[in-house]
Amino acid sequence: MVRRSLAVAATALILLATGGLTGCGSDRSNAAPPPSQSPTHGAEEEKDARFLTIVEQQGVLSAKPDMNLVKLGHFVCQDDLGILKVDPGLAAAELVSEDHSLSQAEAEIVQQAAIKVYCPDMAP
């Protein structure tokens, strides 16, 4: 019986020391943010929000899921061949081929918003 009590006490100490009982009255308000909320991650979320705001203001967001648009925005900036600077219309057509639900006009809006927010150095 004494061994069991010691084992339970030892387990409780380990859980408390490692933060295993965070929902049981511990105050972790001064703790560092989890790795998923690093400053870089917050900056990326802010950029995504700015990108979606621009796209929404142009009427593209209404029928498209946010994450798909964000992925397309990042895809625009992965222009390894430099098509954006040479022929932005062709680059937008490539975006349409990536997501067939976009019209050419919507692709151009997504492209312009992506360049403004994610990769301004790639502006034509």
UniProtKB/TrEMBL annotation:
InterPro entries: DUF732 (IPR007969). It comes from the Bacteria. Residues 1-23 form the signal peptide. Residues 47-121 form the DUF732 domain. Keywords: Signal. It holds the Pfam family DUF732. The keyword Signal applies. Residues 23-47 are annotated as: Disordered. This is DUF732 domain-containing protein.
